[in-house]
Amino acid sequence: MEKTILLVEDNPDDEELTLHAMAMHNLANQIVVARDGVEALDYLFGTGRFTGRNPNDLPTVVLLDINLPKLNGIEVLKRIRSEQLTQLLPVVLLTSSNEEEDRLKSYSLGANSYVRKPVDFEEFIKVAGQLGLYWILINQPAV
């Protein structure tokens, strides 16, 4: 089974930078992009525009922004952790939020990691690439 990353990102610039970083590490063909919280859940559970997709074919990791339209990242994380199918799915909050409340809430809800998006272009590319490599090649998933 091919390993995939679900990138949940509504900012087109951050999406492009993340995809670029993953491409530099030969991970670009393994990324599915959801642009809001509802679309992310539809992908994970095979509903909405993803009706017919096998929900048992989970991504290796979810890179989740907090500030999303329709349903924010905290609510998406709650739903992921509330379902038996996805409760062990690795979720990394990749966000521009520097709010301590967001970080603490994310960890209390079961986030595996909380990474602040660097503002600097080169640093962003480096961080996003390292995240992809770690979760795809190094981490040993629970399921």
From TrEMBL:
GO terms for biological process: phosphorelay signal transduction system. Residues 4-132 form the Response regulatory domain. This is Chemotaxis protein CheY. The keyword Phosphoprotein applies. Coiled coil: none annotated. It holds the Pfam family Response_reg. InterPro entries: CheY-like_superfamily, Sig_transdc_resp-reg_receiver, TCS_response_regulator. The modification 4-aspartylphosphate is found at D65. PROSITE patterns: RESPONSE_REGULATORY. Keywords: Phosphoprotein. PANTHER family: RESPONSE REGULATOR RCP1-RELATED, TWO-COMPONENT SYSTEM REGULATORY PROTEIN.
